[in-house]
Amino acid sequence: MTTDTSAPKVPHPTVDERTARGRAAREVAPRTGHAQLDTAAERDPVALLEEQAATRVPELLPIRYGRMLVSPFTFYRGAANIMAFDLAPVPRSGLTVQLCGDAHLSNFGGFASPERAFVFDLNDFDETLPGPFEWDVKRLAASFEVAGRDRGFTKEVRDSAVLAVVRAYREAMRGFAASSNLDVWYSRLDSTALQAEIRARSAGKEAKQLTKTEAKARTKDSMKAFSRLTEVVDGERRIVSDPPLIVAARDIEHGRAAELVQQELHKLVRGYRHTLQGDRRQLLESYRFVDLARKVVGVGSVGTRCWIVLMLGRDDGDPLFLQFKEAGPSVLEPYLGKSGFANHGQRIVEGQRLMQAASDIFLGWIRNDNPIDTNEPRDFYARQLWDWKASANLEIIQPRGLELYAQACGWTLARAHARSGDRIAIATYLGKSDVFDRAIAAFATAYADLNERDYEALAQAAREGRIEVQEGL
Fold first, then answer.
1. Phi/psi zone of residue 372: left (φ > 0), alpha (ψ -120 to 50 degrees), beta?
2. DSSP type of residue 307
3. Which residues pair with 107 in a beta bridge?
4. What's the average model confidence in pLDDT over 219-241?
5. For the segment 27-65, what is each residue's pLDDT rounded down to a tens digit?
6. Is 131 helix (H, G, I), strand (E, B) or coil?
7. Domain boundaries, the chain
8. Could you tell me the pLDDT band of residue 268, with boundaries at 50, 70 and 90?
9. 129/459 Cα distance (integer angstroms)
10. Can you give the pLDDT at residue 1?
11. CA–CA distance, 28 with 26 (Å, rounded to integer)
12. What is this structure's pTM?
């Protein structure tokens, strides 16, 4: 038997040492200090967005700005890089976890686990990177304040939701601090547990709504995508172009024949297989490549290169839709340091697997060294396009539902952080009182005010012609 002496030694501090670390962090960054929001006088939110847009597909940028200008909340969804800029100067706890990097409330939701259970979890990791735990908490808490304003809720309702999300995080972290490592790892919030929790709070109406949401989500899969997004052309299934939101690869012209474009992207799909586990690679290889198209997704992601791939299994009634999404540097990297992964697709996949209780079986990554529309190599990560994905309907949510949703999000974020960070130190830092909760609530209010000013700055840029906007898409 040989011992690998090249691997770094993993420290295993005692519970007392981890507790002491949490107390020491209070000296570095007092909990009341998290109410602080310092913004530079030269701060230009539009310039930050334009800087991010430099690597994106130019013809899609007006769609991104149009979606951001629907409301201050949609602006917030697309402005993760602006918030990272704003968080950078603030004192940090020094308690590092795997950050989501964009933990706003719409990036939580339901989806199918590999065991075909409907689970509730974080579902967007494009900006994931190690960093101070409170950055995710602040982005999540502020999103409830911004969304509450968008719904026209009173300050009392908004404060209740924000305090609920932070309290749920703090209390869950204390529970995880007292749990075994395996219990933390296996913890998850599935529909059964979520409905039981909702009913325990005498919220029957919200429980019924969850049941309806789950039932609808179970129909959103590759078969539904197959029926909505494809048609038969010359006896073969093809993805239907619906420009500019969906453009089949055969309809994109970048100086190369459509057949060559198809071959290059087909090669990309083949290469991605090697990042999957062996059993899942074998499953993927039972499908044949049929077609692919570029698709516009989300709000903040608009302009990144996103491809959807149609594959068929045993026959034409056995489809699999995969999504290959461009993975650039995290918006956190200028402030927290570069990723330890050479491929940003791998950065996202590894972060997702670490933070999620259950991840897509086809989650993988690839680098495209010969993209069709740029001379720069591009990283991508892959997953299923639709797999029971669902999220809260913020257009109809009521105050009671918003508070319950806040509690679910707070617990889920704590679970994700407890898997990667020192949960005992974080729980000690947070403490039993609501000091941290109220500081974050004050921050959320201040940041929502700033977000409204930034939204207006983008609207002004549109009016002045500094940016081009395409609405309604």
1. alpha
2. E
3. none
4. 90
5. 999 999 999 998 877 889 999 999 999 999 999 999 999
6. strand
7. 15-219+395-463, 222-384
8. confident
9. 31
10. 47
11. 5
12. 0.94
The answer to whether the CB of 308 falls within 8 A of the CB of 285 is no
Helix (H, G, I), strand (E, B) or coil at 213: helix
What are the phi and psi torsion angles at 324 (to 5°)?
-105, 115
Minimum mean pLDDT range among 5-9, 142-146, 282-286, 422-426 = 5-9
Cis peptide before 114 (omega within 30 of 0): no
Burial class for 153, CB neighbours closer than 10 Å (0-12, 13-18, 19+): buried
Task: Please state, in angstroms and as integers, the Cα–Cα distance from residue 91 to each residue in 166, 179, 262, 377, 441, following that order.
Answer: 19, 29, 50, 36, 17
Q: Which two tokens stand for residue 18?
A: 């981890």
Residue 256 scores a pLDDT above 50: yes
Model confidence pLDDT, tens digit, residues 373-407: 667 889 999 999 988 888 888 888 999 999 999 99
> How many angstroms separate the CA atoms of 295 and 307, rounded?
6
Residues 6+ apart with CB under 8 A from 81: 48, 49, 51, 52, 331
Any residues with CB less than 8 A from the CB of 345 and at least 6 apart, and which?
A: 327, 364, 365, 366, 367, 379, 380, 381, 382
Q: What ranges make up the beta strands (E) of 328-391?
A: 364-368, 378-384
**Amino acid identity, residue 154?**
T
Residues 6+ apart with CB under 8 A from 94: 25, 28, 29, 132
Residues 184-205: tens digit of each pLDDT? 999 999 887 777 777 777 667 7
